[in-house]
């Protein structure tokens, strides 16, 4: 039995900010008869993430360093995290009807080789939470926030924590974990609506709209008169420079993403004299090194969700056709929270 | 009894590269009758170090972060590490004739308050090594190299190590420790004479003259086809950017100094995508955090010196009047090894 499978493909390499026309919707036919060690999944939600842009460039250090960030091939489906339902299975561990999360793709159906699938592939089982949560707060975004904050930032209670792109998929969760842990948390975001959300809904101690600030160094001095102990960086560029100036002694900067530098050649030039004299550490961070903490993360985060101590912030568009605009929107700061596209 | 005391003072704040005319020789009279808890020292050698330039600027993060790097006052003596002989003592722990090392100054005589002196002040006692060694390989330069390399870089045998300013006071010792430890070591320096010295005398695996390279990124790729595990940075700027591109996964960069940025506004803008995807750490480092390792360092390094496994490289000028040119020369790369001025 064959079905038509619509997917989103990369039309050409992208160097600056992405345009919708860099992507195209294509269609192919798919046999719904999996081999052994294959499952066929009908996708319900797919994740739209900034790092995917690096995979679409002609040259990026992401291509050679991790499998999940390898270069996207032209004309082929763009791989992405997703949640889907098994419609046919050649692997006895998965049954028709099972809900799974893993590396799927921006497509209606995905064929997964279960023998070569990475640690992200798993069954959701019956869950008290909506399936979409397994892409955000209970998925890669949550695990990135959890391990990046607790394991890389190594926070102490009372630390002053600054989070950039604080309304983004990872940033909002980092801020929530930091508040739960007893830190003082300030976030920055790109609209007043987001700033209100951070302060009113997510109970950040403070937040500001970086687009309304003329001098980020002074802004941070105003929000952190006692200095910053931890900067969770999702942005890079000018904001990283301003943070370095405002870091405290032995301050820790975890570089999780540098979205401003994905589309822009203006790189951050932090003052290295500050780095030396304040013994600042700047640590690059990727989730793949922390997969072993998945169970710990899930158990902690589910508990917080159950007790309404943490919230899932989702921004969901509908239909495969909305993927290109959803992706382009990430770099304009359109999304509030985890950006997903619902396919069914 | 009074003596005349010549000293080097800062005439005006320095913003770019220093000129000899930024410093002046002054003279004052000094009573050779110390109070209790004071010693008066006739200085034999004083240390000429790049970090002192940061202390001469109008604004630098060094001023507020550590006592030893606080701002130099105009018209007053420039503090500096030195070795001297006690000529009068009000503290029973020090006797006339004792050789001491500590924070003295660019001056003929220094008055030291022993009750408020920092951990650097100590008697040398009878030593098998020349007194000047206690400012270089057995002093702050050696301890910086030792703790920066062993404790901050955390080397593994076989690591590929790059050292910049490798003929400088700290760099040459870092390279020698790294060779002793079993690393592959390449250094860069600013003249062919220095490069020969690194390869022929100090047994670096390789070395190059950065002034003869047109593209530092490719140069490092040539010297490290298998990538860099540890970069001990004394230079900053363009070289730090080139190193980041050539770092291996989980590479460690220890920022000990950024001499190119002391005199130049061109700051380093390392590619943060490399930092993320290769999980690079960039760690600022100051010696003051590692003073507790002094005994361990001394015992190890004396042993290596005795067995000719490590060499002291000194560059000694004579007379207080030569201090301004010696200091200016640091930023032109004139010195080969530890720069000292011998006063007597």
From TrEMBL, chains A, B:
A Pfam entry, by short name: ADH_N_2
UniProt xrefs under InterPro entries: ADH-like_C, ADH_N_2, ER, GroES-like_sf, MDR_fam, NAD(P)-bd_dom_sf
GO molecular function annotations of the record: oxidoreductase activity, acting on the CH-CH group of donors, NAD or NADP as acceptor
Keywords: Oxidoreductase
Domain of life according to the entry: Eukaryota
Protein name in the entry: Enoyl reductase (ER) domain-containing protein
Organism: Stephania japonica
Domain Enoyl reductase (ER) residues, every copy: 20-341
PANTHER family in UniProt: OS06G0602900 PROTEIN, PROSTAGLANDIN REDUCTASE
